[in-house]
Amino acid sequence: MTRAAILGTGSCLPRRVLTNAELEKMVETTDEWITVRTGIRERRIAGAGEETSKLAAEAARKALAMAGVAAAEIGLIVVGTMTCEKAMPSCACLVQKEIGAVNAFAMDINAACSGFLFGMDVAEKYIKADPTLKVLVIGAETLSTRTNWEDRTTCVLFGDGAGAVVMAAGDGERGMLGSRLFADGSLWHLLHMDAAPSLNPDLVAADYQGPFIRMAGQEVFKYAVRAMQDGVAKVLAQEGVEPEAVRLVIPHQANIRILNSLTERLGIAPEKIYINVHKYGNTSAASMPIALDEANREGRLRPGDPVLFCAFGGGFTWGAAIVRW
Ligand code: COA
Predict the structure, then answer these.
(1) Containing domain of residue 186, as a range?
(2) pLDDT tens across 12-52, in order?
């Protein structure tokens, strides 16, 4: 059976570090409040030349180099993002041009923070349909461009960055075993971001406050934990993998308390959950591929290891996947 394997990983973070101490000077908050409630100590903020597509392209170059795959060999580019510097063309098309992937078709996926997971799933389906296909899956965001820097309830949470993987048909048992993806659009209002201002006066929403991220934090928290737990349980049961057999969990890095609650409920040892939210905050679709790349480069993954991915984001969207490394 053809399985879609991950051949290489890469990531790219903006240079500028924004610490909690700096945020203390911007809004009424404290390092202690942010650290205790979120686990975040600092995040990266994009500067000139670090637009979403540029970060994405650099992450892609690193993943291609690790995989030993040339850009021209890529047949499909999928980017999970909701903060590309252009609404059209897609971020994926900008990446294609940037890296010279002249033989690829390209598209974005907006599944908010679940965008990379959904992108991996799309890649897997295409690779199963055409085992010669090599796919770049990227998660890239510059949430700093859509953050209300006067709103302390959200501005402390997010950061910028990009991560990428190269996927292709694996040899033997290696590759994605299965996935389960979900959405519930009826809860969109709990976590959302308006688009740029409408130029059609008839379509300007009465409550339009600007293209910022808005969130009902406590409700999102509870739903995120329950939803990811459910997604993980379903994918493990579907693939017949016991929780103890999981070697490493690469979760969406939203918040340390969400990850701690999830860990307790999953019955997976805490040291198997990869965490880097303290360094980068919530980078939405970029968080999982950045975490995967760091875990990979630290030597945390061995061939044959079952690696579990789980994500949750605006929509709501959520899900889980299991990959044999
Ligand atoms: N600094 C200091 N105080 C803050 C603050 C900040 N940055 N943000 C909010 N507060 C205040 C609130 O105004 C409130 O004050 P009040 O009691 O006087 O009204 C108090 O802290 C508690 O606020 P609350 O919203 O109840 O805090 P919380 O414990 O729920 O923590 C979050 C807030 C956002 C950290 C938490 O709800 C959370 O992590 N939610 C999930 C967010 C997330 O991960 N979203 C993305 C999912 S992909």
Answers:
(1) 176-199+207-324
(2) 999 999 999 999 999 999 999 999 999 999 999 999 999 99
